[in-house]
Design goal:
The complex is a heterodimer of chains A (about 325) and B (about 325). With about 325 residues, chain A is an alpha/beta fold. Chain A has a domain of about 170 residues: P-loop containing nucleotide triphosphate hydrolases (Rossmann fold, 3-Layer(aba) Sandwich), CATH 3.40.50. Chain A is built from 9 helices and 12 strands. In chain A, α3 crosses α4, α4 packs across α5 and α5 packs parallel to α6. The two termini of chain A are about 30 Å apart. Chain B has 11 helices and 12 strands. In chain B, strands 6-7-8-3-9-10-12-11 form an 8-stranded mixed β-sheet, with helices on both faces. Chain B has a 4-stranded antiparallel β-sheet with strand order 2-1-4-5, with helices on one face. In chain B, α3 crosses α4, α3 runs parallel beside α5 and α5 packs parallel to α6. The radius of gyration of chain B is 21 Å and the shape is globular. Chain B starts with 6 loop residues before the first strand and ends in an 8-residue tail after the last helix. The C terminus of chain B is likely disordered. Classes of the chains: A alpha/beta (about 325), B alpha/beta (about 325).
């Protein structure tokens, strides 16, 4: 059955102007997300994954490209239309310490999006909704008047989730929602996020640097390196048969909690991420790549389908144009 | 009991507290730990469990006037560190015991070149009268050893990336070839590919120099890759210790250890849901009577709230839990 995907991002670019030239934070990224599905976006610091999330929500202006939500180009909407659309698209931020107003109590924090985006509700309805949301995200009602500093990281992140859910969105960008939390708390929030998806048929774009988290939560994974998508595949496929040398290195760099698997084959890559300012044409991973050949530099490498649903941008392991 | 192999550091019944304006925080509550010569011991626990406090207590770097060792002993070789005078500690820090800190971005001095910062440790611990040229030669040697080009020694910390700064930290810590290295989450702030490089480097250097290491981390993957033994810390107490294989493969575990493992998403099999531990760590400003984990424990019994569990040791694998203390040692079911 062919139907238009709920989310379709086409050739999205975001460049920042710097004194030394343009910084290519997001450079020609395209993907789709079906309703009820999760796309995981992985990459290391500075690869542009957070910028991508922010551009989709128009928290940053884009440079070029399209973001179609049920067929509407979100990036072209005016302020009023955008306000209406924010009921459908929400974000959960990384840092539950920095993303909440320290002077707002739990109920005020959750009330804020309701006041702005659902002015039709009266105070009683809003209060009822706040209690309902606190229950949904697993926050005990005794915390209703607590300030962020009185709560631990896990509970603060639950407020973040409640704020995102307040207006009944359909698509949520999760920007590293668990990376600031301890493993046991991280597991609680991941379970919550997955339960909510099942209950409300939500779609997620889940941004993270943690491959075990992204494997657990995603249906499909997009790997970013210096602003570009270098490989995209269904989760099982990406982990069982990673094709880009960078993806292979990422996966084999994860320390496995299994001492008997320590002699597995490793691809430790040397060197560090190069500057994203005015990159030269060619594969951006080439300077660190152990399989580099002459064809890797000089010409941009297209993202091509090498197997069904498996996109790859690599001249060594990929398909000839 | 297993024969004591060759203990380098022995901590016995340590209690550490912080006196703050809001009252007393009991950070370490009867911690026992043994680190043998040449081994890497992983100290695993969550935020606030007392991992960093343990390391700071060993070096006596607890914040002045606020943090103090209330009771217990810390023995390094045959010397007591817990009551050692500051002058003596200054001789030990950096030369016999040194520390790598969690955040490589903030623990370097931003206005000194990295060459100067490495030289500083050498100058403080080399015999007086060592020539400047000799120290510079050593700086070059150490930088090469940790994979930093020596011609960058005139540069400042802001000119280095996070992974490179962590290499500078490691260089400073290893400059005097200490016997014991306390590594406090050395790779937590780094990206995975850089983490793999740094862990590789630390493993190599440890083998080369024969340093013993206390590796503080919350990442069980890092533990599996680097440690010989593991100690699980919860609310300022060690609740389980053993060889890496004991912790990762044996059936019997402290319920908290089980919870920790249930919380990590598996890389091998597909799980529908994670099995985290409900609830939170106990409030450190209240001294608890029974088992610190009782409130969150799925196997809680009446005795857990009233009596502290005693360590039960089976073939060197220690568990502090009433579930096991009622059974004869060695009985697995």
């Amino acid at each position: 059955m062919m139907n238009t995907p709920m989310i379709e991002v086409k050739n999205l670019k975001k460049y920042f102007r710097t004194p030394r030239g343009n910084l290519y934070a997001v450079d020609d990224v395209s993907f789709t997300i079906e309703r009820g599905m999760t796309l995981g976006v992985v990459g290391e610091s500075g690869c542009g994954k957070s910028t991508l999330g922010r551009v989709l929500l128009r928290l940053l202006p884009h440079t070029s490209g399209q973001f179609l939500f049920d067929g509407t180009d979100v990036l072209q909407l005016d302020i009023e239309e955008m306000k209406e659309l924010r009921k459908k698209i929400q974000i959960i931020f990384q840092d539950p310490y920095g993303s909440l107003n320290p002077r707002f109590t739990t109920s005020q924090s959750i009330e804020e999006p309701l006041e702005i985006l659902m002015p039709e509700l009266d105070a009683n309805q809003r209060n009822a909704r706040i209690m309902e949301l606190m229950d949904t995200v697993g926050l005990a009602s005794r915390f209703v008047n607590a300030y962020p500093h009185e709560l631990d990281g896990g509970r603060r992140q639950r407020i973040g989730v409640a704020r995102a859910l307040a207006v009944n969105p359909e698509f949520i960008v999760c920007d590293e929602p668990v990376s600031a939390l301890d493993v046991s708390i991280q597991a609680q929030i991941l379970n919550l996020v997955m339960d909510l998806q099942e209950k409300m048929n939500l779609s997620y774009m889940f941004i993270t640097h943690d491959l075990s988290v992204v494997k657990h939560i995603s249906d499909e994974i997009l790997v970013m390196y210096l602003g570009q998508c270098i490989e995209k595949a269904p989760t099982e496929k990406l982990f069982s048969k990673p094709m880009h040398p960078y993806t292979q290195a990422l996966i084999s760099s994860i320390p496995l909690p299994d001492p008997r698997k320590q002699n597995r084959e490793r691809h430790i890559i040397m060197g560090e991420v190069k500057s994203p300012i005015e990159p030269q044409p060619g594969c951006r991973f080439a300077p660190r790549c152990p399989h580099k050949i002459d064809k890797c530099v000089g010409k941009n490498i297209p993202l091509l389908e090498v197997e069904q649903d498996h996109l790859l941008s690599c001249v060594v392991f990929g398909r000839e144009e | 009991m297993m024969p004591m192999e060759n203990p380098l550091l022995i901590i016995k019944d340590l209690h550490v507290s912080y006196k703050t304006d809001d009252g007393v925080i009991y950070a370490i509550n009867g911690l026992d730990l043994v680190l043998n010569k040449g081994e890497t011991l992983g100290l695993v626990g969550e935020t606030g469990a007392g991992k960093t406090t343990t390391a700071l207590s060993i070096l006596k770097l607890l914040p002045e006037r606020i943090g103090s060792i209330d009771s217990g002993t810390i023995q390094f070789h045959d010397e007591r560190l817990d009551n050692a005078p500051e002058a003596k500690m200054r001789l030990i820090r950096g030369s016999q015991i040194s520390m790598i800190f969690q955040d490589p971005m903030t623990c370097l001095n931003p206005v000194l070149t990295i060459g100067d910062q490495i030289a500083e440790v050498l100058e403080s611990h080399c015999p007086p009268g060592t020539k400047a040229a000799e120290i510079q030669r050593k700086v070059d040697e150490i930088m090469t050893m940790v994979g930093l080009p020596p011609d960058r020694k005139e540069e400042y910390p802001h000119q280095f990336s996070g992974g490179m700064k962590q290499r500078v930290d490691i260089a400073i810590a290893l400059a005097c070839e200490p016997e014991l290295l306390l590594a406090d989450e050395p790779t937590t702030a780094l990206d995975v590919t850089i983490q793999a490089q740094v862990l590789d480097l630390m493993r190599g250097l440890k083998d080369k120099l024969g340093t013993s290491m206390l590796l503080i981390t919350h990442d069980l993957g890092v533990v599996a890759e680097t440690c010989d033994r593991v100690a699980i810390i919860y609310a300022g107490e060690i609740i389980e210790t053993g060889e890496v294989d004991d912790i990762f493969y044996l059936e019997d575990h402290h319920p908290y250890t089980k919870g920790l493992f249930g919380s990590i998403p598996s890389m091998n099999e597909k799980m529908k849901r994670l099995n985290p531990i409900a609830g939170l760590m106990p409030d450190p400003s209240i001294k608890y009577v029974g088992c610190p984990f009782a409130d969150r424990c799925p196997h809680k019994m009446a005795i857990c709230e009233t009596q502290k569990p005693q360590p039960v040791v089976t073939n060197g694998h220690m568990i502090k839990c009433h579930l096991f203390s009622s059974k004869p040692a060695g009985d697995n079911k």
